[in-house]
C-alpha cells in the first residue's frame, strides 16, 4: 500500500469520512476495512471510526507482523458485522480497543481476555449474544474504562467478590440484563468515577455503593431498586456531579445528606415512591442545573429557596403533593437561567407572582444561533426530561438549548394570568390548563413569537379571544376550550 520507506515512518493512521455531494446519502462509504492496511510496523494508532464501513473485521488484520507496535484501534460508529476475530490476541501491546456502535455479533473470544495491557474497552451498542460473568473482565488488571452498554451481552455476577478492578475509573453497563450487583460492588474499585447500571433488572438494596468514595457519576435509572436512598451518596468527598435514580422503587424521604454533594449538577429521583419534604440542604448544591422530582409523593410548600441556585436550568415538580401559594420571590433576580419549569399535577393555590416571570432571563432571550443544534449536557452525558407538549407526553432524550417550556397545569391557581408572561419571548410551550384563572387572555401573549403550544383550557377565562394571537406563526397546538371566552381565531 505504501512505499517501504514511508510505511516504516507512519505511527498514526486516521481515516475520516468527508462529506460528498452527489452520492446517494451525501457521504462517501469506505467498504469494507481495506485489507491493504498492512506492513506498518511502527503504527501506534489505527483510527477508522465514523466511516460507514461495513463487512466484517478481517482476522488477518491482527497479525503481529503487520502491526507489532499497535497500541490503539478505533473502529467505532460504523456498520461492522460478524464476530470479533479471535486473532486479536496477536496484538499483545494493544491498550485501547473501540468497537462501539456497530452490529458486531457472536461471542467475545476468550483471547480478548489475554490482552493484559488493555486499558480501554468499548463494545457499546452491538449485537453480541452471550452470557458472560462480569468478573471475567477483572483479568484485565490495567483496565481503566469498560463500556458494555447495550452490547447484547447478558452479565452475571457470582456470590463471591472479585479480587480487584483497582484501576477502573469508568464502568458503563447499561442494558446488560443484570439481575444483581451488590456483591460485585464490594470489589476494590477505589478509583471508580463513573458507574452506569441503568436499564437493568436490579431489585435489591445497594448499600455497598457506600464503598465507592470517588464516584462522580451514578446512573441507576430504570431498575426495580428498593429501600431507602443511601444516605452515603452525599458523602463521596464532594465529588458527585450526576445522580440519576429515576424509575425505581425507592421509598422514604430524600436524605438531607444529598445537600453535602456541593458539586452536584443533575439530580433526577423522579418516578419513585419518595415522601416527606424536600430537604433545604439542597440549597448548598449551587452547581445544580437539573432537579427532577416528578412522580413521587413529596408533600411540601413551593421550595422558594431554589431561587438561590444560580445554575438551575430545569425544575420538575410534576405529579407530587406540593401545595399552597407561591409567595413573592425573596431575591430580585430569581431563576434567571431557567429553561424548563414543570409544576403540573400538584395542589398549588393562589395567584401567580408576576415578579418571577420578570426575572427568567433565559426564557426572554432568543438570540441563540439556530443554525447549529446544541444540547444541554455536562462532562458525563446529555440531560433528558419528559414533558407535555402539544397535548402529548414526550421524552426529550436530548434537550436542545433553545427549548423553553412552562407547565403549571392541573393545579388550583386563580386570579389573572400575569401580563409579564409576555416577556418570555423565547418560550415554546405554555400550559396553564385545568386551573381557576379568571379575566381575559393577556394581549401580551402575542409577543411569544416562538410559541408552538398554548393550552389555557379548563379555566374561568372570559372576554374575547385576542385576534393578535394570529401573529404566532409557529403555533401548532392551541386550546382555550371550557372557558367563558367568545370569538374565534382566524388563521
From TrEMBL:
It is a single-pass type I membrane protein. SUPFAM superfamilies: L domain-like, RNI-like. GO terms for biological process: defense response; response to other organism. SMART domains: LRR_SD22 (SM00365), LRR_TYP (SM00369). InterPro entries: Leu-rich_rpt (IPR001611), Leu-rich_rpt_typical-subtyp (IPR003591), LRR_dom_sf (IPR032675). GO terms for cellular component: plasma membrane. It holds the Pfam family LRR_8. It comes from the Eukaryota. Keywords: Cell membrane, Glycoprotein, Leucine-rich repeat, Membrane, Receptor, Repeat, Signal, Transmembrane, Transmembrane helix. It is found in: Cell membrane. Belongs to the RLP family. This is Leucine-rich repeat-containing N-terminal plant-type domain-containing protein. It comes from Camellia sinensis var. sinensis.
